[in-house]
Amino acid sequence: MHHFEYRASHLHAEDVSLDVIARDVGTPFYCYSAATLRRHYRVFADSFHDCDTLVAFSVKSLSNLAVLTLLQKEGAGADVVSGGELARALKAGIPADKIVFSGVGKTRDEMAAALKTGIHQFNVESVPELQVLNDVALSHNTSASIALRINPDVAAGTHDKISTGRAEDKFGIPWAQAREVYNLAGSLQGISIKGVDVHIGSQITDLAPFEKAFNRTADLVRTLREDGHQITRLDLGGGLGVPYQHGDDKSTPPHPEHYAEMIKRIAGPLDVQLIFEPGRMITGNAGLLVSRIIYNKEGESRRFLILDAAMNDLIRPALYDAWHDVIPIREPAKQQEKVSYDLVGPVCETGDTFARQRQLPPLEEGDLVAFLTAGAYGAVQASQYNTRPLVPEVLVDGDKYAVIRKRPTTEEILAMESVPDWL
Ligand code: LLP
Q: Is 279 helix (H, G, I), strand (E, B) or coil?
């Protein structure tokens, strides 16, 4: 459920026409709906209202400070994976004791910064990381609260590039070594064991792999307790998918309430604090990318719509073969016959293709289109490839809107670089 709809024949974000934003901000731009972000956060958090829960929003999915501030006001914590994301979360007012630090490659400096602020927990992914964290904590006369991220060896049935819970993936501590590594952690003075962490992948649309992984993890919690460890937290990661393709029932994800029921059944008896790291589920459908058609080009065998957005603005189709529904900003007439288009950007690569042979109402040069479900992993993965300026972001809330990341000028982009005087 989102708050983008046609009103008076024009696509609106809440009460604001996207035409108006395009006129004021220029294209391309990302637009987020505050009501949708709040709604998704609440649906998730409310599903666990009867449990001790920390909802640590996965900052990587959409890390704009305005969005983090909005979610912080809803009570969200943060799941961060770098010192930069930690700084963002703190700047947005998210209390340190609601922040978890994930990721396979935390550096000493990042660990030290997180320890100083007193974050809730580090999710540790390897023995070498555990040893370095112990070292850093001791050198700061403190101890680090941790969960070990365990790799449950479960295939999530999602795209290869975003599957993380199989034995061959780089993430987490191998299942068979879990007890041994917990015993090692228990012997380290700078480490304070709090829980177990698991995250099996992203855009998962079926409850079965979650259930399998969580059952294994619950068994592990019982075993670790028998081994004498105090396990008081269970971090179940993120990964709940969102619908990308209108009318495709196969990719319809489970409702958060069903996800919650399954988890309560498995984890309820363990009496632990539940931690979640949802990203896409909160931000995916809360954002779209608006672009203008520069040219309508008749190819040998295809008709191309060349847009002013490109793979540097939204890389998901190029990188993961991702599907994003595309709709015109001006509402098409109901009975209009569809035309088959390839939607491409101006970047000099064939990979700069958003969609092939997409059936759309007839479109003209100058028309605006929106890529739906682009809130998660859209703007955050944008680059300045081809010296195209970083795509701006706009937040709508009711009848108000604001640019929450501006489009840099070419001068600003060039000012980041310098030519050594010895050249
Ligand atoms: N926790 C951990 C440890 C993660 O690695 C991730 C995502 C999440 C939570 C949040 O997962 P979510 O709830 O958003 O599925 N760029 C890709 C997705 C990469 C996901 C990386 N990890 C895409 O555009 O599909």
A: coil
* Number of domains making up the chain: 2
Give residue 410 CA to ligand 1 midpoint distance, Å.
Answer: 32
From the CA of 227, how far away is ligand 1's center (Å)?
32
Q: Rounded to whole angstroms, how far apart are CA atoms 420 and 373? A: 43
Q: Which of 378, 400, 402 is nearest to 391 (CA)?
A: 378
CATH for 407: 2.40.37.10
Give me 364's structure tokens. Answer: 């003209």
What pLDDT does 163 receive? 67
Residue 106 lies in a domain: yes
**Paired strand residues for 353:** 344
61 contacts 89 by C-beta, under 8 angstroms? no
Ligand 1 pocket mutation pick from 60, 63, 129 by most atoms within 8 angstroms of CB: 60
Q: In terms of residue numbers, what domain contains 14?
A: 4-31+285-414
**215 and 170 together in one domain:** yes
* Entry pTM: 0.97
pLDDT at 154: 87
Query: Strands 233-235, 273-276: parallel, antiparallel or unpaired by DSSP?
Result: parallel
Q: Are residues 292 and 373 in the same domain?
A: yes
Instruction: Note the pLDDT tens digit of each residue in 121-177.
Output: 999 999 999 999 999 999 999 999 999 999 998 887 777 776 676 777 778 999 999
Under-70 pLDDT residues of the chain: 162-163, 165, 250
Rounded-to-integer distance, Cα 348 and Cα 381, Å: 19
d(CA 406, CA 120): 33
Residue 9 sits in the same domain as residue 45: no
At 167 the three-state DSSP class reads coil
Residues 122 and 234: their CA atoms lie apart, in Å, by 13
Rounded distance, CA 7 to CA 20, Å? 13
Is residue 348 part of the annotated active site? The answer reads: yes
- Whether 40 and 171 map to the same domain: the answer is yes
Q: Give the ligand 1 atom nearest the CA of 376.
A: 24
Task: Quote the ligand 1 centre to 372 CA distance (angstroms).
Answer: 18
Listed in sequence order, the residues at least 6 apart from 186 whose beta carbon sits closer than 8 Å to its beta carbon are 193, 228, 229
Q: Token pair for residue 331?
A: 């509402």
Catalytic residue, chosen from 1, 333, 348, 419, is 348
386 and 347 in a single domain? The answer is yes
